[in-house]
Each structure stands twice: as C-alpha cells, then as structure tokens.
Amino acid sequence: MNQEEIWDTDAAQRYDTPGTGMFAPEILMPTVDRLAELAGGGAALEFAIGTGRVAVPLAERGVPVTGIELSRPMVRQLRTRADEATIPVIVGDMATSMAPGEFTLVYLVYNTISNLLTQAEQVECFRNAARHLAPGGRFVIELWVPELRKLPPGQTATVWQTEPGYIGLDTYDVLRQHVVSHHFRFDDTRQARLTRSPHRYIWPAELDLMAQLGGFELESRHADWSGAEFTAESRSHVSVYRIPPNR
C-alpha cells in the first residue's frame, strides 16, 4: 500500500463527515482556535492538507493558509469548498515539496507525519518545515502515542476503538516500527467495508530528536488541542516546536 493508492477518488469522496468524527465541532473548533493563536497574525502552511477539514475553517478565521498535498483526488475534493485563490495547494510530498512564501506556522494534524514510512523521511519533514518558517516560527504536530503496552508477548494487534458500525484495530511490526490501521465499517447487512493505512509510529522522545535535527526546540506538549496535561496515560499529543528567533 502506498499513500497515493490509499487516498484515491473513492477515499476522497468518503473522507468528509460534516458534524461527526473528525469534523465534530468539539474536535475541530479547539484545533482551529489553537492554530489561529499560534499563527500569530501570520500565514500558515498545512502539510497533507487533504480535503481542507482544518484549513477551510482556519482560513475563515482570517489566517492565510497554503497547503501541500500528495493526493490529487483529495485536492479536487478540497476545491468543492475553497478555490485556489482562497487556499493555494502545491501537489507533492510534504517531506520535500516547497510552497512559495514565508510562514509563521506549519502544521500537521491527525497523525499524518506517520504516513511517512521511514525515519529519514520523517526527519526530512521537519527540515522541510524549517525551510518554510520565518525565525521564531512554529511547527505543530498532532500524533498518537503507540499503544505497545497493550501488546502481550506473541500478540501483534490491538483494538483501539469500537462503536456501533465501526471497529478500528492496529497490527504492529515492532521490528520495523510499523503499524497498519484497519478500519471496519458495517451496518445491518452481512457486508463490511475494510480500509487500511500503513504508518511508521514515533515515540514522543524520538519526535523531539527529529525536531532538534531540523533546528527546532520543543516549546510545549499537551494531550489535546484544548491544552490538557500530557501524561504517561495520554493516547495522543499536540507538540509545538519553534525555530529560535535569532537563527
């Protein structure tokens, strides 16, 4: 599985779920509030902008937003919500592609840095963010914490979410630090729909070292966008890295 195959036309058309899931106001609004604050009146660049889940409401707040996105079908879906003049998008890889201009904020939401499947690519993503940022600019990453404590010896999978009509489970390859997320969606029929996506998981400490290699300093880490304390039991984190103002 590669990312271009995963994020095809069918996936792009099914991605948006207005008012529910990732698009629920209680999830989306704190994200937009925090990013607007961190932009500090400057322009923002979203790596893996997708269909504009975050970029569109952020632009509506008055923050100029540009995106980088590998999937053309996802960009086409975004264009149903915002035109090129409103949210320019560069089609390409977030680890290497460049967007014109200088930004006060670069951000990656909803675990997307883990879509880069090697440590080298993930480090290059930090370096690419640094290339786009003005001195003192910030790079924000939302990322889940690997749930390896749930894996007893000999077991390779964890169920991380169950709800009516949905089961999510992850299968781990701890040797390569890879995980494949499996999403099962079903209704009252005997048929279920499966989608899968591969990831390279990253520990928070490893992420901090990647940041240092890219020229960043850790400014803050919280368990969510509302600023909850990050603890050993937190399932995800929002980490804010900053380029020193005097670089």
Automatic annotation (TrEMBL):
<keyword id="KW-0808">Transferase</keyword>
<keyword id="KW-0489">Methyltransferase</keyword>
<dbReference type="InterPro" id="IPR041698">
    <property type="entry name" value="Methyltransf_25"/>
</dbReference>
<protein>
    <submittedName>
        <fullName>Class I SAM-dependent methyltransferase</fullName>
    </submittedName>
</protein>
<dbReference type="InterPro" id="IPR029063">
    <property type="entry name" value="SAM-dependent_MTases_sf"/>
</dbReference>
<dbReference type="Pfam" id="PF13649">
    <property type="entry name" value="Methyltransf_25"/>
</dbReference>
<dbReference type="GO" id="GO:0008168">
    <property type="term" value="F:methyltransferase activity"/>
</dbReference>
<dbReference type="GO" id="GO:0032259">
    <property type="term" value="P:methylation"/>
</dbReference>
<feature type="domain" description="Methyltransferase">
    <location>
        <begin position="45"/>
        <end position="137"/>
    </location>
</feature>
